Amino acid sequence: MFHSSTQRKYWTFANQDELDSHRRASHHRFIQERLRQKDCAAAQRLTSDLDAPYTDEMWDDLDHDVVEESFLTLREEFEMRRFFQTMLREFCAKFKPEMPKSTIATGFAFFQRCYLNESVMRFHPKNMMITCMWIAVKVDEFHVSMEQFISHLRGDRQKAMDIILYNEPYVMQKLHFHLMVHLPYRSYEGFFIDIRARYRDRLKQSPEKLRPIIDKFLDQSMFSDALLLYSPSQIALAAIFHAAEELKEDLTGYIENVLVQHPITKPFSEADDSEARAEEVMDQDEAEHGAQNSIHLLAVIDEIRHHVSESAKQVVSKDQIKKLEVKLESCKDPAFNPETEEYQRRLVSLFQMEVDEKF
Amino acid sequence: MEWQTCPRCKSSKYRNPSLKLLVNECGHRLCDNCVEQLFVRGSGSCPQCNKPLKRSKFREQFFEDAEMDKEVDVRRRIYNDLNLRQEDFSSLREFNDYLEQVETFIFNIVNGIEVEKTKRDIEAVKEERKKQLQKSRHKKSSDQELLMKIVDEERLNSDDNSRKFFLDKREDETRRAKEREQLLDDLQDSEMSAEAVWESHKRKNSVLDQCTESEDYQMSGLLQRSVIEEPPPVLTDNDLQWFLRDEELDKVEGNMSGPPVASPRSLAEKDYLKATRASSTLELTMGFESVIPARRALLAAFDGLYCKFNRQ
């Protein structure tokens, strides 16, 4: 049940501003940390003119153009995420038997949640995406072995396996171990059952024709922040509404009269022509309440459709990413870079811990 | 040891524990490996008596004396063909004659006396009693019926007994627990000395224990050999429907900020189930009625539909 879930309590936010402020905070936190520790090229360049070791109070004195040049900006972080989301989508499409949509969407949800409290510079999206997906196949019970999983990757597979296993606990911790994701897919089936039972005779064509468009919409919604802002049922309804509009069907009636069980404009006259709603003669208060609910719901649907279509327009090219990768070279967190000694040291200590636990 | 050895390849059960000895119509044994080799084409002759044999007729040797296997085999086959019962004859005398005739046939075939003639005789009897044979083919013999009846009765009895046993046991336990409490209360409240209270309780208990013990004795007499199993739980309608009860659902779904979803019962009554896939028989036997996933999907659809998340 969504209403009692951790998703509602911890991972659904009031609005885009709140999301942005979380991202800004983690971005800021990461840069501060690098400057304090001076463990990457960018930080060393920035702090080389300073007389004393860097403290957080000196932040305002820094030249912010230089900071933006040395570290990835928030916009650049978004571009990185978006590019690797498309990579992740392609990766998922390679699986045979086909990976269920719910598994893919779970992986995407993990990806989005992780980068709320974590900078792209600390944790490369390439590693993040496969780690998230590896957790998702287990959470959603799509059984694949590690060998099968990495066989769809290009490059050094052994290294990929090490990266996944090394980062898995860290990513889980970033998710606060909230591994249950409520997705729009089941809600969408529920609406279909409801429409077929209560609204089928009002539609000009079979609801089955809506499915391809709905699937495409939900696919796009995975890339956006929709799941962090709206409840899965709202997203599903928006998808169905969007598909219906494309096929020149009107579902406003379904929401106003059937779903919320009260028409907004004509409170009682409509009820007469339908037996299904004859029993729904509500008193004035309830009518008012129902009207508010359907107005709110229609507004939310519009918001979601706008949000998803805006997000779908954002495309990132490979050239942009190549530039960003070069920039990233100098501002990575060494603790998460497999080429550094720091990483090796942590790996060994992690292994040692495991051995100690066993004996 | 001799009877566990294959006469052809001389391998024995002792040397090869997985060896399987097979016997065919002629009553000579062969191990499964030799059968594999000799009867590649499905038929061949017995290496000892040269009798032509079919591979499909080989069966595992069950008795030490292979001849016995042969006889059992022949008997089964002939009984299969000639299965008349006493009701089919007008007098006991005739029935006995018939049984004796059958025994003679079996003896002749097993011991190889006038085999061809015996076979012809069997055919003749079969022809003669064709109608009766066909009728009785599907009926169980009275012996078999009796056996079935006894087995059924036994099963019923043992179920009853074990249920009674468990009920008694539980009763006994509660009684003991009560007495223990009573004793503690008495020790606390009574004006008698502690020893006196203890003694009187002990006396009372020993009388009761004897009673139950004698019952136990009776029980085990009845159930001499049958294993005492826990009786199958009796499911009431209430148990089966607990998840469909409205007030239970209300507790969970009361605050889901969306339109309410009707209870499973009323969903089934309305037209909802037409819009979903019907459950297969297999799913139904496991209790997966289609209303359950349908309702789950509907819940997912309506759950959180009116959520506002403090938007500006």
UniProtKB/TrEMBL annotation, chain A:
GO biological process terms, semicolon-separated: regulation of transcription by RNA polymerase II
Matching InterPro entries: Cyclin-like_dom (IPR013763), Cyclin-like_sf (IPR036915), Cyclin/Ssn8 (IPR043198), Cyclin_C_2 (IPR031658), Cyclin_N (IPR006671)
Keywords on record: Cyclin
Domain Cyclin-like: 86-171
GO molecular function: cyclin-dependent protein serine/threonine kinase regulator activity
Signal peptide: none
Pfam families on file: Cyclin_C_2, Cyclin_N
Family, per entry: Belongs to the cyclin family. Cyclin C subfamily.
Protein name, UniProt field: Cyclin-like domain-containing protein
Organism whose genome encodes this protein: Ramazzottius varieornatus (Water bear)
TrEMBL record, chain B:
Main location class: nucleus
GO biological process entries: nucleotide-excision repair; regulation of transcription by RNA polymerase II
UniProt keyword terms in alphabetical order: Metal-binding, Nucleus, Zinc, Zinc-finger
SMART domains assigned to the protein according to its UniProt record, in alphabetical order: RING
Domain RING-type as annotated: residue spans: 6-50
Annotated GO CC locations: transcription factor TFIIH holo complex
Gene3D superfamilies: Zinc/RING finger domain, C3HC4 (zinc finger)
Name of the featured protein: CDK-activating kinase assembly factor MAT1
Gene name, Swiss-Prot/TrEMBL: RvY_14259-1
